[in-house]
Structures are given as C-alpha cells and as structure tokens.
Design goal:
With 72 residues, the chain is mainly α. The chain has one domain. The chain contains four helices and no strands. It starts with 6 loop residues before the first helix and ends with a helix. It is a single-pass type I membrane protein.
C-alpha cells in the first residue's frame, strides 16, 4: 500500500521528514531560512518543529521504531 493510505506509514513519513529537515537545517541554515513561504516553506516548518519539539519528536521516533519492529 501507499504511505498515503496507511496511517502508520503516513506517520512514519512525517516523522522522517521532520527529522531530516531539522538535521539538514543544522548544516545549511541559510538555505532553509530563505524559503519560509510557499511549498519550500513546508521544509522550514518541519525543521522548526524538529528543533523546538525535539524531545517529543525523539519519543515519537522511538515509539514508531518499536511499533514497526515488534508490532507489525
């Protein structure tokens, strides 16, 4: 199935997007900060969520990994 139709896969893709954007922003902040609006603004917003809510994002990543490895 596609990740759009399976809720668990959709959550996994969103978590990966948030973590990837936050990681890339730590190396290239000027590229991310340039595009705050439009379609590329989504990546900036994901990076912000990853930076500001990092304990919650990390907890969700661990829970998602546990659920993928042991529950499915």
């Amino acid at each position: 199935m596609s990740a759009l139709f399976n809720f668990q896969s959709l959550l996994c893709v969103i978590l990966l997007l948030i973590c990837t954007c936050a990681y890339l922003r730590s190396f290239f902040p000027s590229i991310m900060d340039r595009n705050k609006t439009g379609l590329l603004g989504t990546f900036w917003k994901c990076a912000r969520i990853g930076e500001r809510k990092s304990p919650y994002v990390a907890t969700c990543c661990v829970l998602m990994a546990f659920s993928i490895l042991f529950l499915t």
